[in-house]
Write a structure and sequence with these properties.
Layout: H1 11-20, H2 32-39, H3 43-55, H4 58-67, E1 71-74, H5 82-85, E2 93-98, E3 108-112, H6 119-134, E4 138-141, H7 147-157, E5 162-165, H8 179-188, E6 190-193, H9 205-215, E7 219-222, H10 231-240, E8 244-247, H11 258-265, E9 269-270, H12 274-285
Amino acid sequence: MKLVHCQGATNRIVLKLLDFDPSLKNLSKLSSLDLSSITNIPLKKATLLLKQFHQINSYNLIQMYERKQISLISILDSRYPPYLRHISNPPVVLFCKGDLSILQNKRMISVVGTRKASKYGYQIVQYIVKPLVNENWVIISGLARGIDTFAHRVAASEKGRTIAVIAGGFDHLYPKENQNLAKMISTKHLLISTYPPYMKPERWMFPERNRIISGLSLGTLVVQASKKSGSLITAQFALEQGREVFTVPASVLSDDFSGNIDLIRDGATIVSSYKDITECLMPIIEE
């Protein structure tokens, strides 16, 4: 736990340390030279990292997370989401608020789309996501405006389950207008971050959030995307992770769906019904 709170302890560095010592029990005994050699980082950086590590009070951290009702799930934990464990550079720790049992559901589908959703985009969410929820699929999205927000709300209104992955920590929820939605998800569903609660969301964190969204699920449905939509980043991560990418038929005359057209050209599965998704993914789940 202490290690992920050290400045400079990137995910890749922690993974290298886990390869060297899976329990990390000997970390406190390492010298700066040892750490530099194991992780291939400069000696000065290793010295600073170890200094921070020894200065952090574990008891205070534990008390703080208990007070905030935040659970930390490491990659060594049996509760760690199974699909996420198999992506490249999986996050070593997940900061979670809510119902952790949701992570063990095998029926996981990511639903993403533009922040400036059209009426047709919202209709697609209702038409495809609602029946998926009714067949016990967990809806994963990024708490962003537009399609993400609507996907979370549809899942909740249908008495299903939803997971929101955010950029930054829980003390700095973004966007602000979704704070009530985030609170509801963190009590009745599940809110996830890969950052400690005090971290403010930065631009570079959003692609990483998208990588986790796609990594948590077997497939990603891109509802509506323009050519510059962040949803296409999520789709690209899904492809790199060997996961399915789904999209819907869209008008070639609408710039709002130009990203969907590109996805279809690149080989995404076109869906006209929720059954197209379940028929594709259920055989994978049942293997």
